[in-house]
Amino acid sequence: KVVVATGGGPDALPGEVATGVMAAIDGYLVNAAARPLQRGRPGEDARLAAVLSPAVMARLGGPDRAVLVDEGLPQATAPVRITTEPVVLTGLADASGKVVVVTAGLAATTRTRTAKGPVTITRTGDLVLQPDGGTWKIAGYSLAVDRVGRGLGPTTTATTATTAPGAPGAPTPTTVPR
């Protein structure tokens, strides 16, 4: 955990910040990966709104949804297991020492079985989190998603990057067939 301070900021990420950021990441993975696979139906946007900023929620209406949420896949017939590498957190503090932005390096793998066989989904990249009404929410991302398994159609890798709210020029999503 690293903090980059512009003034007299903390030398380490405060515990409550790290806890809030990790809660948002856990909530994202449960609601964007596990629940849609368990239920075999679209993600529940109301649950996602608890961990995604309004700007990211708005992007769920377009092609970014395929990167952010594991939907349209065969329903899991076994437990859905999500494992992550250690999440590297880097915070930015303002002149008063308050952490205002955290970037989280994410490497998560979701595994389950479906009626057609095993499914593995690997999601890697960075999440940008900002405080929002007393909680931390994902306000930006740069993710690569690789879905492998029978019944998934052609395997694709998709990368989408978006900037934090108010920043100009969010890149356009790209999908590359393999």
Q: What do these coordinates show?
A:
- The chain is of the alpha+beta class and 178 residues long.
- The protein is built from 4 helices and 8 strands.
- Strands 1, 2, 3, 4, 5, 6, 7 and 8 form an 8-stranded mixed beta sheet that branches.
- The longest helix is centred in the N-terminal third of the chain and has 25 residues.
Structural class: alpha+beta
Q: Level of helix content?
A: 10-25%
Low-pLDDT segments, ≥5 res:
165-178
- Largest sheet, if any? 8 strands, mixed
Distance between the termini: 35 Å
- % residues in beta strands: 35-45%
Q: Judging from the principal axes of the Cα atoms, what is the shape?
A: elongated
Give the number of DSSP strands. Answer: 8
Please compute the radius of gyration using only Cα atoms: 17 Å
Report the order of strands and helices. EHHHHEEEEEEE
Mean pLDDT: 82
The number of helical segments is: 4
Quaternary structure annotation: single chain
